[in-house]
C-alpha cells in the first residue's frame, strides 16, 4: 500500500496537528509521509491507550480499528464521551455493517483501505474545515455568575462576594472544563481530558476529590450537580 504525498503543503492548513492511531508500522510510515506532505503535523501511536493519552492536542484523529490492545470501536466510544475532535476511520473492515458500526460509535468519516492519497487528504481537509466552523459557533461568554459567586474564565479567577477564592491550578482546570458548557451535562471523560490530557478512567478518584474540594471552597452558591452515571453539570 502506497500513500505518496499528493497535494502541495501550502494548499492546506499549516499549524494543524493530526493524531494517527495505526498499529502497522509500514502503513503508518506511508500515512505520516502523505499527511505531513499535505502540510500537517502528525503524531503516531500504535496502541489505543497511547492514543487516548495523546488526543488532547489533536485537531483530528485518523484511526485504524484493528489495534493490539483494544478494538478501535471501544477507542471511539471512550473518546466520544470526552471530545468532539473529528475522527476519520481508515481501516480494512469493509461492508455496510462495519461502516454503520463505526459511524454509530462516533466516527465522522469512514474509509476502507486501500484508499487513494488524494481522497484521504481531501477527506481530512473537509473534516478540519467543518470542525473549524463548529468551534467558531460554540464561542461564548468569558464570565459566569451565580448569586455571590463569579468565575472569570479568561483570568482563571473565582470570587465570592467580591473576594477572591484561593483555588489550586487543578481545581481551576476542573471548574473551567465544567463552566465551558454552563447548564449542560459534561462527562467525566471530558473533564479528565481537559485537566489531565486523557479521557482514560484512571483519573476518576482524583476527579472526585477535586469536585468535592470545589464544593467545599465555593460553598452553596456553586450549582455543581452530579449527573449519575455520566458526569457533572454546572448551573441549570
What brief labels describe this structure?
236 residues, five-stranded parallel β-sheet, phosphoprotein, Rossmann fold, elongated, alpha/beta, four-stranded antiparallel β-sheet, transcription, 8 helices, Arc Repressor Mutant, subunit A, WH-like_DNA-bd_sf
Structural write-up:
It is a single chain. The chain is an alpha/beta fold and 236 residues long. The protein folds into 2 domains: 129 residues, Response regulator (Rossmann fold, 3-Layer(aba) Sandwich), CATH 3.40.50; 92 residues, Winged helix-like DNA-binding domain superfamily/Winged helix DNA-binding domain (Arc Repressor Mutant, subunit A), CATH 1.10.10. Strands 2-1-3-4-5 form a 5-stranded parallel beta sheet, sandwiched between helices. A 4-stranded antiparallel beta sheet has the order 6-7-8-9, with no helix packed on it. A hairpin with a 2-residue loop joins strand 6 and strand 7. Helix 6 packs across helix 7 and helix 6 crosses helix 8. The longest helix has 21 residues. It is found in: Cytoplasm. GO terms for molecular function: DNA binding. This is DNA-binding response OmpR family regulator. InterPro entries: CheY-like_superfamily (IPR011006), OmpR/PhoB-type_DNA-bd (IPR001867), Sig_transdc_resp-reg_C-effctor (IPR016032), Sig_transdc_resp-reg_receiver (IPR001789), WalR-like (IPR039420), WH-like_DNA-bd_sf (IPR036388). Pfam families: Response_reg (PF00072), Trans_reg_C (PF00486).
Question: What low-confidence regions span 5 or more consecutive residues with pLDDT below 50?
Answer: none
Q: Which CATH top level class of the largest domain fits?
A: Alpha Beta
Instruction: Please count the beta strands (DSSP E, at least 2 residues each).
Output: 12
| Radius of gyration, whole Å | 20 Å
CATH architecture of the largest domain: 3-Layer(aba) Sandwich
Give me the CATH fold name of the largest domain: Rossmann fold
CATH superfamily of the largest domain: Response regulator
> How do the strands of the widest beta sheet line up side by side?
2-1-3-4-5
Query: How many domain units?
Result: 2
Q: Let me know the average pLDDT.
A: 86
What share of the residues lie within helices? 40-55%
So what's the overall shape?
elongated
The computed structural class is alpha/beta
Give the end-to-end Cα distance, rounded to a whole number of Å: 52 Å
Tally of helical segments: 8
The percent range for strand residues is 15-25%
Describe the biggest sheet? Answer: 5 strands, parallel
Element-by-element helix/strand order: EHEHEHEHEHEEEEHEHHEE
GO molecular function, one term: DNA binding
Main location: cytoplasm
Protein name: DNA-binding response OmpR family regulator
Keywords: DNA-binding, Phosphoprotein, Transcription, Transcription regulation, Two-component regulatory system
